[in-house]
Amino acid sequence: MFGSSPLGDESRPRDDAIRLLARREYSRHELAERLVAKGHEAEAIAGCLDALAEEGLQSDTRFAESFLRSRILRGQGPLKIRLELERRGLDREEIRLAFDEAAQRGEGDWFALACDALSRRFSGPGDIPRERARRERFLASRGFDFDQVRHALEHAWDSATDHS
């Protein structure tokens, strides 16, 4: 009997989930995948995740806000961030709300962010089409859309402080 939980096996998914959440935020989908990988039963996982959400210990809204903020700080664009959030199991409405909240906080000026990313990586717009294409690919791979890429190519080196 030593070493076993007084609540039996049902507490184990919760213990594993708490350990994971102690390190960083996880989406419900990510947490479920990790608990399945640890060998927990689907029914026990669902109940555990419902309880964690009710207690405010796991929140897809909080996860989306945290994830979005961290990716903005990395200089990633909205297309890549949206795709990553979808891969982590968030629906489009949750993603839209996270982007709206970020905009209300003054985060996510995608045009300025594209300019910053470009000016940090390259010293100028490039003298030949091949160099310009390289800069376009760089921003596209970061998740910026066509208009943001064009804006950045035209304005990234205007001044060191203003990219809007």
From TrEMBL:
<dbReference type="InterPro" id="IPR003783">
    <property type="entry name" value="Regulatory_RecX"/>
</dbReference>
<dbReference type="InterPro" id="IPR053925">
    <property type="entry name" value="RecX_HTH_3rd"/>
</dbReference>
<dbReference type="InterPro" id="IPR036388">
    <property type="entry name" value="WH-like_DNA-bd_sf"/>
</dbReference>
<dbReference type="InterPro" id="IPR053926">
    <property type="entry name" value="RecX_HTH_1st"/>
</dbReference>
<feature type="domain" description="RecX third three-helical">
    <location>
        <begin position="109"/>
        <end position="153"/>
    </location>
</feature>
<keyword id="KW-0963">Cytoplasm</keyword>
<feature type="domain" description="RecX second three-helical">
    <location>
        <begin position="59"/>
        <end position="96"/>
    </location>
</feature>
<comment type="function">
    <text>Modulates RecA activity.</text>
</comment>
<comment type="similarity">
    <text>Belongs to the RecX family.</text>
</comment>
<feature type="domain" description="RecX first three-helical">
    <location>
        <begin position="14"/>
        <end position="50"/>
    </location>
</feature>
<dbReference type="Pfam" id="PF21982">
    <property type="entry name" value="RecX_HTH1"/>
</dbReference>
<dbReference type="Pfam" id="PF02631">
    <property type="entry name" value="RecX_HTH2"/>
</dbReference>
<dbReference type="Pfam" id="PF21981">
    <property type="entry name" value="RecX_HTH3"/>
</dbReference>
<protein>
    <recommendedName>
        <fullName>Regulatory protein RecX</fullName>
    </recommendedName>
</protein>
<dbReference type="InterPro" id="IPR053924">
    <property type="entry name" value="RecX_HTH_2nd"/>
</dbReference>
